[in-house]
């Protein structure tokens, strides 16, 4: 069993900077957990503390049933794959993969067996005699993974392992890592700042910001029920639109007043807003670009098309309403011209409401 538990984990660097501010996280056995967040939010620091490469300032870290705060990296039964692969340049692929096992005094025949098996899984059997500089980026990436696999770790730690690859290879390696996780049946903790990687690969996502955890949930939940404005804005591209407004009750109906325009709430949301005491309060309304409907004519707000971006199957439509820019995501077969008047409306079942002060979701 290799669940990983972080209890009130804090990291203060020697210069006094607090990179991780007391986080709690439970990564289940065999889970594919993603740590995602903007640059500098503490992802690498957190992963390095799990690996034992960074001292834990405060809190308790366990792998399985064992508290590992004072356990050396080599005794933690983990393997880490770094962004720059960190292969030994003067060694062949085979020797790179064998290195850790030799240190552990694994018998030669077993080393050979394990390397052959890992090489087969990763499709690098033909590369075993080459040196790292004779490999492409994607091949080096596979060797780095292979070196981790042969050690049969209980936990795989990966820090942005795909960020040096071109876009096409990244998509391919993403699928391969998902498959690898299924095959190995091992706990993965994977760091990225790429929200697409987070959404597609993880069984759960842990969104971090400024040394704190913002939300931990399955990708679908993170997307459909973001816990706060930060998560709502960070996950999803193009970004969610945000508007300041107020919730009021009119003729028995709950509406959001945004710059003098009234937007009806779905009945579930209306009930929740009332129960939680938000009638008459300032809020932030959020709507995802794909939940804005654009029509040539209709009952919605009248605005003009400013910019359109065609992205294969999607069309991003930018428009301004009362001095604020919005973005809507439509089907690419929608035909729109620059400056054309359009009618836009929001899907009332898909609206998000946040407390203006705490920035937390009112609905979930
Ligand atoms: N040795 C150090 N001493 C002082 N501060 C550090 C040290 N290492 C990292 N930091 C700071 O701690 C914060 C978190 O760094 P960390 O590397 O964990 O971020 P990250 O989330 O991995 O970012 P990125 O996406 O850019 O890799 C940053 O503000 C960074 O500048
Ligand atoms: Mg990092």
Give the structure's gist in a few sentences.
The protein is an alpha+beta fold.
Tell me what you see in this structure.
This protein has 364 residues and is α+β, with helices and mostly antiparallel strands. The chain folds into 2 domains: 4-234, 3-Layer(aba) Sandwich (Rossmann fold), CATH 3.40.50.300; 241-355, OB fold (Dihydrolipoamide Acetyltransferase, E2P) (Beta Barrel). It contains 9 helices and 20 strands. The strands form 4 sheets. A 6-stranded mixed β-sheet has the order 6-7-8-3-9-10, with helices on both faces. β4 and β5 (66-67) form a beta hairpin. The longest helix is centred in the middle third of the chain and has 18 residues, at 167-184. The protein is elongated and about 80 Å long. The mean pLDDT is 93.
Layout of SSEs?
Blueprint: E1 4-12, E2 18-27, E3 32-36, H1 43-51, E4 58-63, E5 66-67, E6 78-81, H2 93-103, H3 108-122, H4 137-149, E7 155-159, H5 167-184, E8 187-192, H6 195-201, E9 204-209, E10 212-217, H7 219-224, H8 229-234, E11 241-250, E12 253-258, E13 261-264, H9 267-275, E14 282-287, E15 292-295, E16 301-311, E17 314-321, E18 324-331, E19 341-346, E20 352-355
Parallel strand pairs: 3-8, 3-9, 6-7, 7-8
Antiparallel strand pairs: 1-2, 1-4, 4-5, 9-10, 11-12, 11-14, 12-13, 14-20, 15-19, 16-17, 16-19, 17-18
The structure holds adenosine-5'-triphosphate and magnesium ion.
The site of magnesium ion (MG) has 2 residues, from α1.
């Amino acid at each position: 069993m290799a669940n990983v538990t972080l209890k009130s984990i804090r990291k203060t660097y020697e210069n006094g900077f607090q990179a991780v501010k007391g986080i709690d996280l439970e990564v289940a056995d065999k889970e594919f957990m993603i740590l995602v967040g903007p640059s500098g939010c503490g992802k690498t620091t957190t992963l390095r503390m799990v690996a034992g490469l960074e001292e834990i300032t405060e809190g308790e870290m366990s792998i399985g049933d064992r508290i590992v705060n004072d356990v050396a990296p080599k005794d933690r039964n983990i393997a880490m794959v770094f962004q720059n692969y960190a292969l030994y340049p003067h060694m062949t692929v085979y020797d790179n993969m064998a290195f850790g096992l030799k240190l552990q005094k694994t018998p030669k025949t077993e080393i050979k067996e394990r390397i052959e098996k890992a090489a087969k899984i990763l499709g690098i059997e033909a590369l075993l005699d080459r040196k790292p500089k004779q490999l492409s980026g994607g091949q080096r990436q596979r060797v780095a993974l292979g070196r981790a696999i042969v050690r049969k770790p209980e936990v795989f730690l990966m820090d942005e392992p795909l960020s040096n690859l071109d876009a096409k290879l990244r998509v391919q390696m993403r699928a391969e890592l998902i498959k690898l996780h299924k095959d190995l049946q091992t706990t993965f903790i994977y760091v990225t700042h790429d929200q697409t990687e987070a959404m597609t690969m993880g069984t759960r996502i842990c969104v971090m910001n400024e040394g704190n955890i913002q939300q931990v949930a399955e990708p679908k939940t993170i997307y459909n029920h973001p816990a706060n404005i930060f998560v709502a804005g960070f996950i999803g591209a193009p970004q969610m639109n945000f508007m300041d407004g107020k919730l009021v009750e009119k003729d028995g109906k709950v509406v959001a007043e945004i710059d003098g325009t009234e937007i009806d709430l779905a009945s579930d949301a209306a009930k929740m807003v009332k129960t939680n005491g938000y009638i008459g309060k300032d809020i932030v309304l959020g709507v995802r670009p794909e939940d804005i409907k654009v029509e040539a004519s209709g009952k919605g707000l009248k605005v003009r098309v400013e910019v359109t971006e065609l992205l294969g199957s999607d069309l991003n439509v930018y428009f301004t309403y009362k001095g604020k820019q919005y973005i809507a995501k439509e089907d690419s077969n929608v035909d729109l011209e620059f400056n054309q008047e359009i009618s836009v409306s929001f899907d009332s079942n898909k609206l998000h409401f946040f407390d203006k002060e705490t920035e937390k979701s009112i609905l979930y």
